[in-house]
Amino acid sequence: MLRRKMLAAALAVGLAGALVLGGCQSSGSKGKTADGKDSVRFMVGGSAAELEQYKKAVDAFNEQSEDVEVTFVGVPGDNYNEKIMTQLKSKEAPDCFYSEEASYGELNKSDMLLDISKYLDEEDSNLKRGDVPESLLENYTFQDKVTGVPVDCNPMVIYYNADLFKELNIKTPQEYADEGKWNFEALQQVSEQLRDASKVGFVYENWWGPLYSFLFSADKPIYSDDMTKAEFGSERARAGLTYLDSNIKSKAFTFAGSLTSGESPDTLFVSGQAGMLYAGRWYVADFTDLSFEYDVAPFPYYEEPSQAVCAMPATPLVINKKTSDPDAVWEFVSFYCGEQGQKIRMEGQGNAVPTVDGLDEIVLTGTPEHAQNFLDAVDIALVYPKAEALHPGMTDSITGEVEKLLVGEQDVEQTLTNMVQTVSDELQK
């Protein structure tokens, strides 16, 4: 789900040859290296640049561990989730791996993941319960079993072209935020001012993060605790969807799905055409050499500051329940997701926000000026709903109905009716 640009295909292919090592071994087979260390196989997908950063943490672990040797299996391209699911079903899965939103719920329902609760409670563990943000810990808990820990997180904020706002004499999102007036009305106002200056105001991407940020607020959970009811038919959801629809129609907002071939939200922003984006910290590394100054501000609240919310994608690292040596695997996982591993992976400015204490400087060093907004956003973040993780395909059905609205195939009322029915049908399964 994290929208990060891939490097050149040649680099990806070259790195693939270097990283995809060791072939497939039987899930749960206990191996030893030539020097007697316990062998752990770790799989992750990503761009060539991301895989290179992940491998640095693996190399650092291998250098300091006396008992465990990790084999890194990097999967460049878009078929990572398919590869993981195929290997699990054929009993050739790695000992630990990144679990994507699309499959995490299914893996839990199928009882394929190890309960790591006892490790998080151990006094000498490199990673404890208190090191994991509460919202994520709850999201990674299924039937009282904790089955994942975050590798990092990516609370989303508004990126804006500060020079463009200054040039057009438009009050910036951060100025509104400082005044306590950064709400939906203000976002619409500055978007209209940018539109009237022949610029793209705000670029809307139609996936769960942006959509739920517009439809819901912090004062009401999307799903009930027992995951039998949802708020898609609420007045708040209706207001948010109406707001999106009207701003797309007025061209104050631009729907990313309507962009022409070769265009994307980040290319519009980099070229100076778009004034605002909504994204996590994954763009920071890409925006180091812009021809203009940019900054970030919180996502606006609906009407009152107490309603403030933002989306926060976060990927869990999980352990295969059939691994033969869970202690050895946890030694690596706790390093990789703990302070040392996150610091190594975010060397420089990084592309995410640490989930452990003591690493704030990674986020605050360099640009943008108001990077503190990334850190503050963690406390108000909306994470991927567990109810949707447990019902594969439901999220796509919801966003699919909204896309029909945004391209003019149906109105707000029909969209709400269809979403409510879709969610109700899924929750009853």
TrEMBL record:
Top-level taxon of origin:
Bacteria
The primary location reported for this protein is other
One of its GO biological process terms is: transmembrane transport
Q: Which keywords describe this protein according to UniProt?
A: Periplasm, Signal, Transport
As given in the record, the signal peptide range reads 1-22
Q: State the family named in the UniProt similarity comment for this chain.
A: Belongs to the bacterial solute-binding protein 1 family.
Record localization: Cell envelope
Q: What is this protein called?
A: Sugar ABC transporter substrate-binding protein
Q: Give the species this sequence originates from.
A: Blautia producta
A Pfam cross-reference name: SBP_bac_1
Please spell out the taxonomic lineage of the organism that makes this protein: Bacteria, Bacillati, Bacillota, Clostridia, Lachnospirales
- List, alphabetically, the InterPro entries matched: Bact_solute-bd_prot1, SBP, SBP_1_CS
